[in-house]
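User: structure tokens for this one?
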Amino acid sequence: MRRLNRTYRRVDKATDVLSFPADDGPAPGRIADAPLGDIAIALGVAARQANTAGHALRTELRVLALHGLLHLLGYDHEQDNGLMRRVEERLRRRVGLPSGLIARAPAADRS
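Assistant:
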């Protein structure tokens, strides 16, 4: 995962989830009529995060999958002034998931 993060994002550290759009992807909130792309989840990182958060690995994988899916749908929490965070929170509450990745990030890391 560190290699993927370094290669595609130029960030030389491991991460929990990466999204790889099939193309430029749809505009935020729009549904595509073709495959959106791929999501890579680091199982070891997910397990550590689940342990830290106090919930099951399965729950953490769902949190990470939701975050990755939102990126495939065109959301970008690093540039959207909180739009992705709000959408993630709303969807998370709807399906009964605990706090999402953006909400867990230290304030200095959030956009």
